[in-house]
Batch of 3 targets.
Target 1
Amino acid sequence: MDLHIEDLTVTVDGRDLVHRLDLEAADGEVVGLVGPNGSGKSTALRCVYRALRPSGGVVRIGGDDLWRLPLRRSAQRVAALTQQGSADFDFTVEEVVALGRTPHKQGNQPLTAVERDLCENAMAQMDVTHLARRGILELSGGERQRVLMARAIVQQPSILVLDEPTNHLDIRHQIQLLRYVRGSGLTIVIVLHDLNLAAAACDRIGVLSEGRLVAVGPPEEVLTAPLISEVFGVDVTIVRHPITGDPQILFELDSAPPSGRYQTVATRP
Amino acid sequence: MVDHVGDAGTTAHPTVPRARTALLVAVLVIVLAASALIAIGLGSAAVPPADTLRYLWASVTGGTISADEVTRYQIIWQIRTPRVLLAVIVGAGLAAIGAAIQALVRNALADPYILGVSSGASVGAVAISLFGALSALGIYAVSVGAFLGAMAATALVYLIAYGRVGVTPLRLVLTGVALSFGFQAVMSVMIYFAPTSEATGTVLFWTMGSFGAATWGSLPIAAAFVVVGIIVLRRRSRVLDVMSLGDETAASLGIDAGRARKSLFLMTALMTGAIVAVSGTIGFVGLVIPHITRMITGATHARLLLIAPFLGAILMVWVDLLARTLVAPRELPLGVLTAIIGVPVFIYLMRRRGYVFGGR
């Protein structure tokens, strides 16, 4: 199912957190969103999983205006891994995963055998089967993140919105998750802070800065040294991955920051 | 993993087999019935359980009893039975409300009185008994006043907490706490300037809680609110599960948390108002029984809202029995006893099971 974000604006207290954003993801496409802290990435995503009503613009999924659909209906098509995702009460892992079926159930309808299989498969895919009976509050940040990912999979969406899904994950599970993202066939919008992982995982990348989309396109066109310097304020060297050919971004901690954006105000004696 | 082949589509919770939950309910029903029977029999004039049963049977079926038993019969049927039944209703109601409220405001320290319901009810009740309004309602005037006070307090808290992004759980809790102090101040002023000492007794009743005023007349309304309320809350179990994961997550799972919170709060406020109106403010039950139940059932609301009312009812029956027998003929305030019994039980369970609530 395709996703079209058209002219999306979110205004809070007179300030545009997202300003006239246009972004689309074709059916099965993986679109990354990168940008500095506070550039409006999460805010834009929240409008897609309906945690925040946009001040202007339209979000279309499969041609339908998302915000005109009943919430339950849109949740059947769009699943999300949010940043605010933990529980305050000690549900077990399998209970949390099972709640992913909520938009497909009426009231307290119990899960069917097929749905329970679905839950078990999702837990296996995210490598949390061994945690099934554990309380969600006992888990480490990374384990919890994988549980929430399993819950999103169980929702059987056509569109998956992932807000920093690799947070807290060790490198093996980061790769595992992004492999799932690549192979799922779902339409995916994903916020990533690791530009190298973004380059490897995404078909296209959009770069947000101060609520505006400043570039969008295939990773090798978007992730250029001048753009990264401009948007993030860091100098980088870009090389090609020797096997995949994806752009890989290298940093030098000792080089001076580029002039203009950041200035050294004090140095260590 | 639990093997569920053969009962496809009927098992509500993969973690706990239905049979175990059913067994637990059966045990709790028996314990509750036995507790109620013992509590009805005991008091200043103790009646053996067999006689108690006979009297109850006689009043339900219209049977006969001998003339020298009339006094005992009247104590059993007119005084103790409604009182114990009220304890059952109030205990069950407070436990269910507490469980739901804790999910609604995502706060493990929340209880049924969090939204200023209790202090609002006290203000309403004291105002009625002082100024004699609603006298057309006779003996129910004070209860109606308490109910109206509770509703007014809840509405006020909700309106004040309503902000630009709707009502967030934390704003609700903070507003409730702040306004509770305000209501208490109003109540203190009323008592200070009250012409009679009667008002002081009324206040004690409403702040400490008592089933001393239980009659058959006041029972059905409170029972209706509590029973209907628990059924409604239980029907929204999955919504409560989802809401305890946070509003953002709820939205992504197709639940409008703001809207659900509004309707569920209305439900819990009506229940709490009806309970406070007949029993005053009984602390601790609504806070601790949900936690104790979670240690047994886990956090899932379908099970929590099934088991918690039984535990609340059983605790309340025993607490009331102790309250009226320990220092007879005087009565201890219920709130004192709920704390004395509940705190050690709670601490014991918490240490034994490594129970976690409210995050780490």
Target 2
Amino acid sequence: MNRAISTGGGRGLPTAAAAPEDNSQFITFTLCEQEYGVDIMAIREIKGWTETTSIPHAPAFIRGVINLRGIIVPIMDLRARFGMELAIPTRMHVVIIITIGTRTTGLLVDAVSDIITVAPASIRAVPDMGAADGATLLTGLVALDDRMVSLVSLEHLIGNAIAQMPAAETRLQPAA
Amino acid sequence: MATGHFDHLKSTYFQECGELLDSAYASLTLLSEGRQDDDTVHAIFRAIHSIKGGGGAFGFDRMVAFAHVLETLLDLLRDGRMQSTGAVVGLLLRATDALSDLVAAERTATLVAQGFEDALLAELGACALQGLGVVPPPVPRVAASSSPPGAQAVLYTIRFMPHPGLYRNANEPLLLLRELKRIGDTTIRAELARLPSLERMEPEDAYIGWTIALRTTADLSRIEEILDFVSDDCDLSIERVPDTVEIAADDAASPAAPDTLSIPVAKADQEPRRGEGYVAPTSVRVDVQKVDRLVNLVGELVINQAMLVQFGALLPPDVCPGLVGGLATLSQHLRELQEGVMAIRTQPVGSVFSRMPRLVRELSTQLGKDVHLVITGEGTELDKTVIEQLADPLTHLLRNALDHGLEAPDQRIAAGKPAQGTIRLAAEHGSGRIVIEVSDDGRGIDRDRVLAKARQRGLIDDASTPSEEEIDNLIFLPGFSTVDVVSDISGRGVGMDVVRSNIQALGGRITVHSRQGAGSRFVLSLPLTLAILDGMIVAVGRECYIVPLTNIIESLRPQSRDIHPVAGCGDVVAIRGDYIPLIHLSHHFDVPGAVSDPARGMVVVVESETAGQVGLVVDELIGQQQVVVKSLEENYGAVDGIGGATILGNGRVALILDVAGLRVTHPPRPQSTHLVQERWR
């Protein structure tokens, strides 16, 4: 981890509204000045950007794979995934490593900003605005002072990405 | 005991049975070849004894009874009271086959036909008696393993002296005493001699022994069976009290037979108890995943160390001389660690070889051919995963050798060869790979017939005249079979093409050498492990790819005049008169900034079972390296043309090409190659 995260712990949120054990914690990050949140329980680690090895025939939002202590982990460009232009990664960019089921993936984001605690009641549904692809990848919206945080559905994010990957017929059998 | 735990114990037992049977077969093979030493028979005995012991615990009575009789015969051999003649070894082999069938039946919970083992039991019994110089009794009497009809009560004195640790192994003497009481009249006397004073007594130790006088009609093996569980945890002696001599005299028809058979049985079970034949377990069972995790971690350490060494080299040498020396030692230790960890995954290839004698035995009987199977190099070690996947191809090759390769005895004699054919199965290490050979001294490949067949099937051009070697290799083509009559043994449509693709899936190669009339030799060259692969690192644009060395035929820098475009098919390169289709890796994988003119880059000619030869256009060759194969699918998915990934010394990921998969998305058309390529899968 090359970057400290400020542990705000529910800054300005109506945390008293629900029993604390129902609350979920999210790590928030920014993409093009917009704030997003992912479930903290899915996050394995946060690291700085490193050069990737590109994968042939991959969707544009898959930047390639990196070596995470011996495991090959694909890196998804979240800007591109949400329909924005590809990120031009610098040393300041951050990769959030998440694990969903048995799959480990890295999410390339602009910067990590905060940890927030959210009561279920304060999560608002995503309004139906003509079903842009990006909208289905969100589980809800949270108001935070004067900001808005979009909560990302990691299941959809990873699941849809798998569906978009081309299937292959033959491969080597790795031993591990 | 929870069922889950019990099932687990059971599956461990069956796993052990497999290994024990393998070792028994291996020793029997030594025996049959006259290469035995003092320990060979002991080893077989121990294997059968362990199978029997464990089987008793799970209540596999039928199997246990069979193993018991087999063990009796082995005991005679062990004591030198019998010679291991060819006939005896043959019988032992057949008995071991039957035992493995019985074990398999218990494992799959299927029922073996009643009377399946009776004939063998009778044969084993008769053989044991002959060994003792006793005329065999009528067959049914020996076959019946319980007390012979009309047997009289016999008095036995059983001394049962538990070792202190008896209770710790979950034994309960009371149950045994009750069980003994159930088969006859008992008088039990406790032996308190070893009972210490109270203050010196360990609460969990066993101190009391028993002397049991048992009058029973059941035979000795039944008593043995009851006491079998505790046999390792006590001093045990079972003696027949000779006050019933007149009974044996009464039974004049078959006087000593049942008893003579019993005596060696008693000995057989006592010997391991005394610890004489006992071998302490020298291996540990470990989950493969745990080993893989170690392999991964060590791989990471190696990369880390490479980085440290690079940084260390940047320092002026006089700044910290200790660091440089320390790094060198670290590198050396790491290399040893890596080799050691890799070695954990390896196993002797004998575990798959030992299944082959049975196959050959059964097939040769079925085919009426006399075959001698010679196995060498069974101690050669290679990766467990590779070994497991070798069984099918080897079985197929041996079947082929027996069915198609070797002639019938009369034909062999007519050809001036010994009537007995020889099949060799050999393994050896060679330059970081393992080489396995399956050869026979049969008729060899009939090239005229192969050629005719290939033409008939349209596998080859009528006009072409392939070389002898090319003809031999035709047998690896899909849909090829020279056998006119589909026999029961081979030629069931599963051909050599499957063998070849199996071997290639393991990163290996198979070649055939044949001399007409003198036999054929199939040579399999396999990597020692699937986790490591020898690869050539090639650069394409700013990416690096690994081409498995097994696929590479040659690499060259072509002249511009050798490159020809073919309409609709891309380019071909002319190499020694052949046109090899080219695949531009940069186009194929969409890598920017790569060399597009093959004459300015390099062409790596690769071959795979599906694609034949193709030339890969790359920017340059970077070097040859052993790489650790990692899964790309685990977190991403399968990619056409990519077999896996690896981590280079600089910590970056490089993708490993799957040459066979490359073609699937870019089928090359052979221009004037001899063979018609078929897409198949």
Target 3
Amino acid sequence: MAEITTIGVIGSGTMGGGIVQVCAQAGYRVVVYDVQDAFLQRAIDGLRSTFGMLVGKGKLTAAASEATLERIVASTDLADLAPCQFVIEAAPESIELKRDLFGKLDALCAPATIFASNTSSLSITAIGAATSRPEQVVGMHFFNPAPLLKLVEVVAGQYTAAATVEATVALARKLGKTPVRVKDTPGFIVNRVARPFYGESLKLLGEQTADVATLDRIIEQEGGFRMGPFRLMDLIGIDINFAVTQSVFASYFGEARYRPHPIQQRMVEAGTIGRKTRRGFYDYREEDK
Amino acid sequence: MSRILVAAPPVDLAGETLAADLIAAARAAGHELIVYAPVVAGDPNDQPAKIGLPTYAYLDDVGDDRLRGVDFALELFDSGPRGWREEKMGVLHELAVLPASVPLLSLCNTCSATEAANYYAHPGQVLGFACVRPFERIKLVELLLPLQVISSDYRVQDGTVGESGVNPNLQTAVAFFQSLGKETAQVGDCVAGVLPRIVAMLANEGAYALQEGVATAEDIDTAMKLGANYPLGPLEWADLIGLDVVHATLWALQAESGDDRYRPCTLLTRMVTAGLRGKANGRGFYDYS
């Protein structure tokens, strides 16, 4: 396996931008691709302001900030990813889009290049099948915000080679992350094992066992969870949480443990999906006054 | 300080169980405890009690005068070598020798308060409670009123009971848990309250993931702690609560509701069949020997 010196990142949104930062700060050269110059410019500006803030706080020297930014090249031409030994894709969650991108990369990059997807919900196996090298296609699921959260789920698809998984685990460690190895299954670990935290809380609410504030208080004070499920759903967005639940439920062909709750659907229908609409399980409109 | 009759499974008195936690906390708070631990002849799991108190194998040995003088009873059966249900029913039946005026706090991690009250000669004196262990970590205990003592609108969150006002046993329970440094929250009656039910579901989901080879136990726990900010991984938490208790919680939820979402993972069932209780006897999802 060739030594990794240059990492390609596809997508410069929240996750892509965070992954670019993590890779560049770990000393790698980064080629970041997106479909529009404006998206790339916004991501680079974002990094510049993040580093400016870190320099201001004394957590980064001005010289290190400049050197890190100089390691990043932005491009709207996918062919510029050709020299990368490792590519991490963080494009929107569409299987058609990802299969198209990976098919093109397959023709552009050297045979040894590893392709990783940051998908949280799509099958690594399905993405790998769009290339001639499914044994070199792997999941590399970072958590938002990528520069802060330590976890990376390294996902092995049906035909991913053990060497690919190990190279990805080693890279995650070099990026300062804590990797866990996961088999390609719906929701991987976190998005699957966390389902009952929300689903069972919604069921308890539906049964009038207690109100939202009491349920959160119990789960925080008795359980030691930093945020109760309703406060957390309001923060994440009830629509996003509902979409993940529906996706896992459908992927397991209607398994009862993942059954979505009508309360969540009503909240989405009402357009009160949490903090971003100032109203969800809690009302945040008073905070605005 | 109160004089409390504690009824607990002998097998739980060697430590690393909720019964042992509660007895230690009540002793430290200065309560006078009379510990009734009905011996199961020939129980292979039986270990010497390590609670630093004498235990009574037969209720008759306690003496009528001392039984009449207890302020309340604390019944802690949520597990047992012959199946918790049979033993809980048996011990609640025996406790009928207590005066009809004595409140009984029943641990409801594996049944509803309504079911516990149904087994007791004075159902109006029963109050359920539920919590996870380790007890020292939690700041709050859940209180559950049985259906037998609540008003006909089935809404019990306000703590009032029909026209008679607040249930006096609630005050006994609140004061007792306050003396152990815990807040309380009253919730509607259900098997295992709120948090023990949610944690049992998280542990079950983790066990399914382990059984399906999605990841190792360590990686499942690491992922949930780092990726979802959980205070404990679901599998290490199950080992602390007791696999027999987690399994009994799920079993009781499924039995009461008939809902498939509560069906225990067969790996968990098999571990309990093999006598693996978790930290309490040295082996669960992890090895503590």
